[in-house]
Amino acid sequence: MSRGRELLRYVSTRLALAPVMLWLISTLVFLLLRVAPGDPVDAVLGSRAPEEVKAELRAQLGLDQSLGKQYLKFLWDLVHGDLGLSLIDENPVTGIIGRALPASLELSVTALVVAAVVGLAVGFTAIARSEGRLDLAGRFYGIGTYALPPFWVAMLAQLLFAVMLGWLPVGGRFPPGMVPPEGSGFLIADSLLSGDWRALQGSLRHLVLPACTLGLLLSGVFTNALRLNLNRSLRSDYVEAARSRGLNETQVVLRHALPNALLPVLTIAGITVASLIGGALLIEVTFSWPGIALRLQESINQRDYPVVQGIVVVVASLVVLVSVAVDLLVALLDPRVRY
Question: Residue 239, Cβ neighbours under 10 Å: how many?
Fold first, then answer.
């Protein structure tokens, strides 16, 4: 079988298994929300509301039905692309996610760029002076940034750059008192397209601190991955063969060792950006960033079942799509990969 057919079969299999994976995740979230302590009716009306009022609202929301009927209705709506209405404010869940997701994507992509640039630079510099002080510092950096508590680092960054120095805002996504530009929800892109330079400046000032904080915390992953793979490549037979042909060390590293070492890093980048979409909860909470993770945390506290279920389904779908795309890209770039 040719390589193209193998790749097509692999992608088709992954895409065919994606609905099964999403069904399992959705079912698990549905069941966990129902067995978790707390009543969404109490979250809406308060625990001291009359029982007849609670019963009326519970019937209106369909929570008085059996678990099986609720589950079948949930699956039916999900198959038809209907994520339901919020139990708290009765707004469509798709609209809630549509407003929150661009903020998380903007933060995640910017943080990923910061993490990749800083992490790869530190990793490459460290391996260039293998077993020296720079290499030791790179190891400490890779371990330390990954191990630091995100909320603690975020509060230190706020204290230093926002409170003491006053360079950047403490939190939020846009300057209060200003009207954000309309469009896709990506404030930087919308500001550029509309030519609103004040909005662009305000968006960037609010984005710098949370994105750099999250990016620096993740950069250690790229540092360790590049160090490990580049060190392994430099000791491989094809690199030794390149050296024996008289190539200098710079050519050996840049043309032979580095391209092969970056392929696993590409996979890590794909996994990181997928997990960042819903995994930056502590950063979003600390910086009051109105993203999908902050909305998920609020919905869990309010027992807002449809919003929680909708966010999990959307994030899981994005993770699956990004994973398949990264696997396809790695397979196209590396002819050694077989499926």
Answer: 18
Mean of pLDDT values over 10-33: 82
88 neighbors 323 (Cβ within 8 angstroms): no
Tokens of 161: 């750059």
DSSP string covering 253-290, please?
IIIIIHHHHHHHHHHHHHHHHHHHHHH-HHHHHHTT--
**Sequence-separated contacts (24+) of 313-317 with Cβ below 8 Å:** 313/22, 313/25, 313/26, 313/29, 313/78, 313/83, 314/97, 314/101, 315/277, 315/278, 316/21, 316/22, 316/25, 316/26, 317/18, 317/22
Q: What is the 3-state secondary structure of 30-74?
A: HHHHHHCCCCHHHHHHCCCCCHHHHHHHHHHHCCCCCHHHHHHHH
Report whether 265 contacts 117 (CB < 8 A): no
What's the mean pLDDT in 227-242?
Answer: 73
Contacts of 131 (CB under 8 A, 6+ apart): none
CA angle 93–99–103, rounded 5-degree value: 130
If we measure between CA atoms, which residue out of 172, 170, 206 comes closest to residue 188? 206
DSSP 89: T
Contact assessment for residue 195 and residue 188, using Cβ atoms and an 8 Å cutoff: no
* Structure tokens belonging to residue 299: 């919905």
User: Which two structure tokens, joined as six digits, stand for 50?
Assistant: 């009359």
Lowest mean pLDDT among 56-65, 77-86, 174-183, 193-202: 56-65
Q: Which two tokens stand for residue 43?
A: 């979250």
pLDDT digits 0-9 by tens, 245-290: 776 666 677 676 777 777 777 777 777 766 676 557 778 888 988 8
**Would you state the pLDDT for residue 66?**
83
Point out which residues pair with 92 in neighbouring strands: 85
Task: Estimate the crossing angle of helix 93-128 against helix 187-194, to 10 degrees.
Answer: 100
